[in-house]
């Protein structure tokens, strides 16, 4: 790893700490593990990117450091959404590569293409860009949660948010992917949808994380249509394997 990449790794972790108001240098050391070195911190301090209090064992991004970190994090998390929702594959590794080559204009273009997503696949907030602020009303009116659908309606999936890591593989396991159509059959006692020919039972938390294009909603509310006898409800949670790369 080059010196530049290592410093950016520190900056990204410090941003994650900033999001939870954590300034303890031991948290930084724990996240980096064997990769931790004091030299990048010295360089970042000399550049004015971080503020460090050695007596209290505290470290945080300076104002200019937060501006730079925000751009890195936005590019990384938008890259994750692009790979996760559209391209498929290892979105962690791919996003690590994309964040170093995407300029602000390209990031905003991808953000607009994806409908200005609010969260990365890990459920972490994506810092807003100018494109999000200028199109905020449009974005909110274009995408709805599955829980906002009426029984009997059909709509196309825009993307799936994951609030917890254990739900990261929900798309693969339930065949719920961006672009596929789903029909809502019932809301209680659990949500039942039809997707790719299968009836799937979901709890409210999972259902609320499925986002749909509002302008694709079709059909009128109708009576509940239960799955055929012998059909299988496949509402399941997923055990994600540990990832080598750290979430940004």
How would you characterize this protein structure?
The chain is an alpha+beta fold and about 250 residues long. The chain folds into three domains: about 60 residues; about 70 residues, Arc Repressor Mutant, subunit A (Orthogonal Bundle); about 80 residues, SH3 type barrels. Helices cover about 40% and strands about 15% of the residues. The chain contains ten helices and eight strands. The strands form two sheets. The chain has a six-stranded antiparallel β-sheet with strand order 3-8-4-5-6-7. The chain is elongated and about 65 Å long. The two termini are about 15 Å apart.
Q: What is the fourth-level CATH superfamily of the largest domain?
A: Ferrous iron transport protein A (FeoA)
Strand content: 15-25%
C-alpha termini separation:
17 Å
- The number of distinct helices, counting runs of at least 4 residues, comes to 10
Q: Sheet with the most strands? A: 6 strands, antiparallel
Q: What is the second-level CATH architecture of the largest domain?
A: Roll
| Content-based structural category | alpha+beta
Helix content: 40-55%
Number of strand segments: 8
Give the strand line-up of the largest sheet.
3-8-4-5-6-7
For this structure, the CATH topology of the largest domain is SH3 type barrels
Low-pLDDT parts are: 136-140, 221-247
**Radius of gyration, in angstroms, nearest whole number:** 21 Å
Return the CATH class of the largest domain: Mainly Beta
What order do the helices and strands follow? HHHEEHHHHHEEHEEEHE
So what's the overall shape?
elongated
Report the average pLDDT across residues: 76
């Amino acid at each position: 790893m080059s010196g530049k990449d290592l410093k950016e790794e520190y900056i990204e972790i410090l941003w994650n700490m900033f999001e939870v108001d954590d300034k303890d240098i031991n948290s930084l050391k724990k996240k980096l593990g064997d990769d931790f070195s004091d030299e990048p911190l010295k360089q970042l301090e000399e550049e004015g990117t971080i503020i460090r209090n050695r007596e209290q064992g505290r470290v945080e991004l300076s104002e200019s450091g937060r501006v730079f970190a925000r751009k890195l994090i936005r590019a990384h998390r938008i890259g994750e959404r692009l790979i996760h929702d559209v391209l498929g594959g290892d979105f962690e590794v791919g996003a690590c590569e994309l964040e170093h080559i995407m300029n602000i204009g390209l990031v905003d273009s991808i953000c607009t293409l994806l409908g200005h997503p609010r969260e990365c696949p890990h459920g972490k907030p994506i810092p807003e860009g100018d494109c999000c602020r200028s199109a905020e009303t449009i974005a909110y009116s274009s995408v709805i949660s599955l829980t906002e659908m009426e029984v009997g309606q059909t709509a196309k999936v825009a993307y799936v948010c994951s609030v917890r890591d254990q739900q990261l593989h929900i798309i693969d396991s339930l065949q719920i992917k961006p672009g596929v159509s789903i029909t809502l059959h019932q809301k209680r006692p659990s949500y039942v949808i039809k997707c790719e020919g299968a009836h799937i039972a979901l709890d409210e938390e999972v259902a609320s994380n499925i986002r749909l294009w509002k302008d694709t909603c079709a059909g009128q509310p109708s009576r509940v249509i239960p799955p055929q006898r012998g059909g299988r409800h496949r509402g399941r949670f997923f055990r994600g394997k540990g990832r080598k790369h750290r979430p940004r």
